[in-house]
Specification:
161 residues, mainly beta, 5-stranded antiparallel beta sheet, two-stranded antiparallel sheet, globular, disordered N terminus, binds S-adenosylmethionine
């Protein structure tokens, strides 16, 4: 994988270390009266840029069924492999929903992280949104987003990791 850090000059003996390349981009958390907190860039961002890599906290199917689904976690978790559920730590839990999203995400099962990547060029102050799918549990209050020229499915198919 391109993002793996094979440089051992830094007392780093972990050849599987995940490089957090996204931290070069200036992002802000801003509060919206209806959508709550959301993620905004302070600068323009080119298409296909990694804007966030979120480590995930995994819940087993039993743990989620007995506890997680009855808590606020249910609004934040992603379906993971083998029936597990994943809470994205960091900004991964802060992306709001848009039906025409400007950010796609890739579940990296090998490294237990979710990678968020821009699907088109983005202007400063344009909210970064992902698509939660069709079963929304709230009334969609997304700003009009410019149509992406790719949908999430095509995007995932074309993204090289
Ligand atoms: C994963 S959280 C996103 C972060 C959240 N805004 C916060 O402040 O914690 C999902 C929640 O954000 C809100 N939300 C996300 N996208 C929205 C949208 N398009 N319209 C209205 N509310 C939205 C809903 O309350 C939803 O349960």
């Amino acid at each position: 994988m391109g993002e793996k850090n094979n440089n051992n000059n830094n007392n780093n003996n972990d050849s599987n270390a995940v490089v957090m390349e996204q931290h070069k981009i200036e992002l802000e958390l801003r509060n919206h009266p209806i959508r709550g907190r959301g993620v905004f860039p302070k600068e323009s961002i080119k298409r296909n840029t990694v804007v966030e890599i979120s480590p995930v906290l995994l819940f087993s199917p039993d743990e989620y069924k007995a506890h997680g689904q009855y808590t606020v976690l249910d609004h934040y978790t992603y379906i993971w492999k083998e029936g597990q559920f994943a809470l994205a730590l960091g900004l991964g839990s802060m992306f709001n929903h848009a039906s025409s999203p400007n950010v796609g995400y890739y579940r990296d099962f090998e490294n237990n992280v979710i990678r968020y990547v821009t699907m088109r060029d983005i202007e400063p102050d344009e909210e970064l949104c992902i698509n939660y799918g069709s079963n929304l549990w709230f009334e969609d209050n997304a700003e009009e987003q410019a149509e992406s020229d790719l949908d999430q499915q095509e995007f995932l198919g074309s993204f090289e990791i």
